[in-house]
Design a protein that fits this description.
The complex is a heterodimer. Chain A is α/β, with parallel strands linked by helices. Chain A has a single domain, classed as 3-Layer(aba) Sandwich (Rossmann fold), CATH 3.40.50. Chain A has helices spanning 11-36, 51-58, 74-79, 84-91, 124-139, 157-168, 188-191, 216-231, 260-267, 271-281, 287-310, and strands at 66-68, 145-150, 173-179, 182-183, 186-187, 208-212, 237-242. In chain A, strand 6, helix 8 (216-231) and strand 7 (237-242) form a beta-alpha-beta unit. In chain A, helix 1 runs antiparallel to helix 10 (271-281) and helix 1 crosses helix 11. Chain A is globular. Chain B folds into two domains: 17-201, 3-Layer(aba) Sandwich (Rossmann fold), CATH 3.40.50.970; 213-340, Rossmann fold (3-Layer(aba) Sandwich). Chain B has helices at residues 21-35, 61-69, 77-89, 108-121, 151-155, 168-180, 228-241, 260-270, 285-297, 319-325, 329-340, and strands at 16-20, 39-43, 70-72, 93-98, 131-136, 161-163, 185-190, 197-201, 213-216, 221-225, 247-251, 254-256, 273-280, 306-310. In chain B, helix 8 crosses helix 9 (285-297). In chain B, strands 3-2-4-5-7-6-12 form a seven-stranded mixed beta sheet, with helices on both faces. Chain B has a five-stranded mixed beta sheet with strand order 9-11-10-13-14, with helices on both faces. In chain B, strands 1-8 form a two-stranded antiparallel sheet. Classes of the chains: A alpha/beta, B alpha/beta. Chains A and B meet through helix 5 and helix 6 of A and helix 3 and helix 4 of B.
């Protein structure tokens, strides 16, 4: 147990991490169903299969630390402490949602909790995260900002500009790349010039780390090191988490660009199954306790849906509110 | 020793000196950085080059406030804008400088999709107190990629405020307001105006956003214009006065929010409207101003409003061609004669 348990975690934290992973999966599974029922508008980008990345990363953060998220953002939000009731209400466009029904799935934010927003622009959070790290540095606060982005954002110019600035200014930011292999239909290995994007970090003179994104504890260990570096004033780093989205890009994805057999290979590496098995093997919890956790999560998400469904629509006279402070 | 994190109360305005437009902007930055430790400046060549900025707007700031708060950046316009937005959301009050407004084409994503929308998208639970400073305009032979006036791009986007000072006093007073505003403000200076001089109040002189200034009183026609057009209209008004035409000149000073009441009050008096800007005529702010006046006070108009604007052409290098592409005082005078005829 001592060798296996990463520094900074205890059995209680491990149980919480499994619970959050289960909650993310249940939340996004139910979001897909609500979309198909026609209850939800727009679209939804399921995080299912990638839960270990958000949970392993956010377990390495303090409450005062910040994250920026992506269009596939429900997992990041829940992992950083977002309230599933307010998130679900936002998905249903209700006045009680995080954004009063004005943002929807792709714009959920909780600035006070350090969640600087999901983002509808691929790479849109990269500069924001770097700027938040600059604000912390300027104010002399030892807060760290984690920037989640996907392999699709690897080839946005703002990543180059921001990474260079973070390096020359020694900013406390950790760029966490979720390489889930596809940007819509574009395979990362065909659209990125290097087979392992981790090497990109060397172009900016800061460390690049790679880890198995299907192993929540590997993510935790790797990100915790990067966060400790940033907090100690040693500057930015890149963490590439190798992962996979079990579902399509969004709910309407034709999925004609990947082999179902490939999906089966990755599903066999399910990060939740793996972590649950590890916790049971190491005596952190029993199978019954893990089942109880799942039942508890189902209750929580159903309560969130009930809250969202019973919440009022925003009044039309709120349309022009909150354009300006 | 913990550093202060909140601003001191502003001091009162005292006395008036003659300053250039660039010096007035510098004074606003300096005084607000002294007062509010959250304010910082970032941009290309704002610290080292020539002692602070290619037009001297940030001159001497790095000596007083240090390289942490006066940051030279690499040539990375998108990141300059995006970092400023992120820093603002996280509690700082950045003043991000773009050397030329033309370069903001590289920074539109964070300005338009992030800064302008974050508060609304997040249900009013974020503040984005960032100033994007740039200079625009033609007249110096800088040609097509360094001479545009692009204020209309920003006016089109809900969530941004747009400020266009034409005098040194307004440059100071409006910049102080812009930095203190909790919203993203696009603060557009004019390169030809930097060396112009005028009286500027010392101390805490604040001009509120959204309040127009009457630059000249007259009863026969109303001219609404920004930046150099205010000064060209003043020159035109002198010529027109000799013909018995008294031109009223309204400088809106901020385009968003726009002081429509001031314009309508003037048009109700004169019955005639001419609008002017250096920006391309097509879809420029002149069209918006005329549409708003027509919608709110059509009955007050005694003649069709006229636009005096930049021609719909990339700004050329040659001096004769450049002058021909820009609206001149004679063009304003001719337009006024047309509407009062």
């Amino acid at each position: 147990m001592v060798d296996w348990l990463p520094a900074g975690l205890d059995p209680g934290r491990l149980r919480d991490m499994l619970r959050t992973m289960l909650a993310i999966r249940q939340f996004d599974q139910r979001a897909l169903e609500l979309y198909r029922e026609g209850v939800m508008r727009g679209t939804t980008h399921p995080y299912i299969g990638m839960e270990g990345v958000a949970v392993g990363t956010c377990a390495a953060l303090r409450p005062g630390d910040r994250i920026t998220s992506t269009h596939r953002g429900h997992g990041h939000c829940l992992a950083k402490g977002g309230d599933p009731r307010l998130m679900m209400a936002e998905l249903l466009g209700k006045a009680t949602g995080y954004c009063k029904g004005k943002g929807g799935s792709m714009h959920i934010a909780d600035v006070d909790a350090g969640i600087l927003g999901a983002n509808g622009i691929v790479g849109g959070g990269i500069g924001l995260a770097t700027g938040a790290a600059l604000a912390a540095q300027l104010a002399g606060r030892d807060e760290v900002t984690v920037c989640f982005f996907g392999d699709g954002a690897l080839n946005q110019g703002v990543l180059h500009e921001s990474a260079n600035l973070a390096a020359i200014w020694n900013l406390p930011v950790v760029y966490v790349c979720e390489n889930n292999q596809y940007a819509m239909s574009a395979r990362a290995d065909k659209f990125t010039s290097v087979p392992d994007p981790t090497v990109r970090a060397s172009a900016y003179g800061f460390p690049g780390f790679s880890c198995d994104g299907m192993d929540v504890l590997a993510v935790y260990r790797t990100v915790a090191d990067a966060v400790a570096r940033a907090r100690a004033g040693k500057g930015p780093s890149l963490v590439v988490c190798v992962t996979y989205r079990f579902f399509g890009h969004h709910v309407g994805d034709p999925l004609n660009y990947r082999d179902p057999a490939e999906v089966d290979v990755w599903r066999a590496r399910d990060p939740i199954e793996r972590f649950r098995r590890e916790l049971i093997e190491h005596g952190v919890m029993t199978g019954e306790q893990a089942d109880a956790l799942q039942a508890d999560v189902v209750r929580e998400i159903e309560a969130a849906i009930a809250f969202a469904r019973s919440s009022p629509e925003p009044e039309v006279d709120t349309l022009m509110e909150d354009i300006y402070a | 020793m913990s550093q202060p994190t909140m601003p001191a109360p502003p001091a009162a305005a005292v006395g008036t000196r003659t300053l250039t437009y660039a010096e007035a902007l510098n004074e606003a930055l300096r005084e607000e950085m002294r007062r509010d430790p959250r304010v910082f400046v970032m941009g290309e060549d704002v610290a080292v080059w020539g002692g602070g900025g290619i037009f001297g707007v940030t001159k001497g700031l790095v000596e007083e406030f240090g390289p942490q708060r006066v940051r030279d950046t690499p040539i990375s316009e998108e990141a300059i804008a995006a970092l400023a937005v992120g820093a603002a959301v996280a509690g700082a009050r950045p003043v991000a400088e773009f050397m030329y407004v033309d370069f903001m084409g590289l920074a539109m994503e964070p300005i338009v999709n992030q800064a302008a929308k974050i508060r609304y998208m997040f249900g009013g639970k974020a503040r984005v107190p960032v100033v994007f400073r740039a200079q625009e305009g033609a007249g110096r032979g800088n040609a097509a990629q360094h001479s545009q006036s692009l204020e209309a791009w920003f006016c089109h986007i809900p969530g941004l405020k747009v400020v266009t000072p034409s005098t040194p006093a307004d440059a100071k007073g409006l910049l102080l307001s812009a930095i203190r505003d909790d919203n993203p403000v696009v603060f557009l200076e004019h390169k030809v105006l930097y060396a112009t001089k005028g009286p500027v109040p010392a101390g805490d002189y604040v001009v509120p956003l959204g309040v127009a200034r009457r630059a000249r009183e007259g009863q026969h026609a109303t001219f609404v214009g920004i930046h150099t057009m205010v000064h060209k209209a003043l020159a035109a008004a002198e010529a027109l006065a000799g013909e018995g035409i008294e031109l009223e000149i309204i400088d809106p000073r901020t385009l968003v929010p726009f002081d429509l009441d001031a314009v309508i009050a003037s048009v109700r008096k004169t019955g005639r409207l001419v609008v002017g800007h250096e920006a391309y005529e097509r879809c420029g702010i002149g069209a918006e101003i005329i549409a708003q006046v027509a919608g709110a006070a059509f009955d007050a108009l005694d003649a069709p409003p006229v636009r005096v604007c930049g021609r719909n052409v990339p700004v050329p290098y040659n001096a004769r061609l450049e002058a021909a592409a820009l609206p001149q005082a004679e063009d304003i005078a001719a337009a006024v004669r047309q509407v009062v005829a």
